[in-house]
Amino acid sequence: MKSEGSSGATAAGWAGQRERSNLPALRVMRWIAVAAGRRAARLMLHPIAIYFFLASSAPRRHSRAYLERVLGRKPGWRDVYRHFHTFCATVLDRVYLLREQFDEFQFEASGIGAILEPFARGEGVLACGAHLGSFEALRMVGHDKGLRVAMIMYEDNARLINDTLAAIAPNAKLHTIALGRLDAMLVLRRWLDEGGVGGMLADRTLPGNNPQRSKTVVLPFLGAPARFADGPFRLAALLRRRVVFMAGLYRGGNRYDLRFGELADFSTAASAEERDAAIGAALQRYVTTLEELCRAAPYNWFNFFDFWADADAEANPRA
Predict the structure, then answer these.
(1) Verdict on whether the full-model pTM lies above 0.70
(2) Running DSSP on this structure, what letter comes out for residue 205?
(3) CA-CA distance, 222 to 189, in Å (whole number)?
(4) In 3D, which of 173, 135, 178, 175 has the Cα closest to residue 153?
(5) Continuous segment of H or E residues that includes residue 20
(6) pLDDT for the residue numbered 25
C-alpha cells in the first residue's frame, strides 16, 4: 500500500482550503443569510459562484475532469458552473441547518430504517457519508426523530470545522469526537453505547499510513482506479457496530433527498480473516453506492481536486 505523501495536501481539497482562508467571507455570508433570510440570500449565490468559477482555475479543471467521467460526455462551461453553484448553495444552507431552521427546507428520506431501527433498540451506529451534497442534512432527521449525531474526525479537521462553524453559526451545537486523542475510543464507544450516531466522511484517504488504523485500497470508481481508505470500516469492526451509508442530496430550491443504506454489521465476533474480508466487502459496497449516487446527482460531489491522482500507477505498478 502506498502512503499519502504529497497527495495528503491535495486531498485537503479546494473546499477545505477555501474555508481556512476565507473565514471573514463566511462571516459576511452568515450575516447576509441571517439578516436577509434564505430567499434574499440566495440571490447572492450567482455572484459568489461566478467569482469562484472565474478565480479558481485548478478546481475548475478538476470539476471538468470529474464531470466528464460521471456524465459520460464532454462537459460545457454551464455544467462546470452548475457544479460550483450547487456547492455554494449547500454552503449557504449550512447556516440554516446548523441554526436548526429546518422549516426552511423540504426533505424526503429513503432507507431511513437502516438508522432508525438500531436507534429504536438503543444501538448506536456509524454513518459513513461523503463530500456529496450536505451531511448536515442529517440534522433534519436527527431533530425530527430524536437522533443525536456526533462528527468523528481527526484533530486538524476538527479545528477547521470548529473555526468554520464559529464563522457561519456561532451558536450552533455541533458535537465532534476528535480521533488521535488518548481517550477518543472511550468517548466514541460511550457515545455509541448511549444510542448516538457517529458520522464520518469516507471518500478521502486518512493522514498517515498506520495499517492498524487504515489501509489505502485502490478500487474502480467512475471508470478509473481511485484510492479509498478502509479506516472507517476498521473502526466499526473494532467497536463492533453497524455501518450505514448516509447522503443528503441537494435537489434545488429548498429540497433535499436523504439516502440511507446499511453497508455492514460488525456487531458479531469474527476471526481476523473474516473481519478483513468483511471490511473489504463493506468498502466495496460504499464505493458502489457512492458511484450510483454521483451518477444520480452528478453536481453534488464536492471534491475539487484530482481524486484519481496516482491511483492508476498504484493499481498497475508495471506501467
Answers:
(1) yes
(2) P
(3) 35
(4) 178
(5) helix 7-21
(6) 60
